[in-house]
Predict the structure.
Amino acid sequence: MKDRYNREISYMRLSVTDLCNLKCKYCMPDGCINHTVPLSFEEMFDICKCAVDLGINKIRITGGEPLIREGIVEFCDKLSSIKNLKELTLTTNGVLLKDKADALKQAGVSRINISLDTLKRDKFRDITGFDKLTDVMYGIKVAEKLGFEQLKINVVLMNNYNIDEISDFVELTKNSSISVRFIELMPIGNCFNYNSQYISADVVLKKEPELKLIDFKGVAQIYQKNGYKGTIGLIRPLSDKFCDICNRIRITSDGKLKTCLHSSEEYDLRGLKGDDLRRKFIEAIINKPDSHTLTETCFSKTTRYMNEIGG
Ligand code: SAM
Ligand code: SF4
């Protein structure tokens, strides 16, 4: 289905919980302070089915941390059976991945993105509040071994924090077909010293001048170093905003449909079924805002924290 700006809306991100087993400084520094009762998996399934009927062909499961919700594997299994859903993917912090990756693959999850902002144990503990880097690295290895398509590592760029590790992340792509994607920090929720920590993704190209632009995939600009197996993606919501090609909508764990990450506009889907649900979806998609105003205002109009929305 198209919105009023003629954008084909085909991608939905579904947050299955706002809770998490980490406390990243830029996402939920104080823990989950606005915890809400999540929709049941049955309600989420009805929403996904309706979305697919309206033209969504890719669903990404997110959170909070999606792998902490009990029944997540069975839910993925049910979702992947929806006719016309082409792709079921998942974003995780990787802590529980080593034990769940195999079952997720069997359940029809074809791709996994893992969020990881540092390769150093002390820094990992500092940013996330937990000493779990070893589990995440092990989870990545297991997922690689299982042959998930296009495994991605998402790194949020933070000035004075992980800029010195850009080359280490690039090196991960030397012998592995993994994709490392650097994402600009966004001013959302109670974000970790946004003004001093934000840095444009240009810094990656400054540190790694040998990177060559080879492609554009969705919202990511794809680079590669000569002879390397994997790729580097730059996602620049601020320094090069991509609203004109935005094809996504989001469902929060408590059942609010958001058509723009940074808008305060939400459509409550809880309790809706059949034609009522379908009508609400259509109304929301048609009215998707043309763009965010982060670049101009430096703040997000959403009052939610990232763990509630799912990134
Ligand atoms: N817990 C899972 C994880 O960390 O991958 C899924 C949810 S998390 C909210 C989804 C993504 O949002 C992560 O890649 C995280 O780094 C990103 N994120 C959270 N806060 C952000 C911010 N202020 N700016 C940019 N990305 C952010
Ligand atoms: Fe949890 Fe992901 Fe937020 Fe970190 S970014 S606190 S892992 S939801």
Notes: Residues 267 and 284 are 7 Å apart (CA to CA). The mean pLDDT is 92.
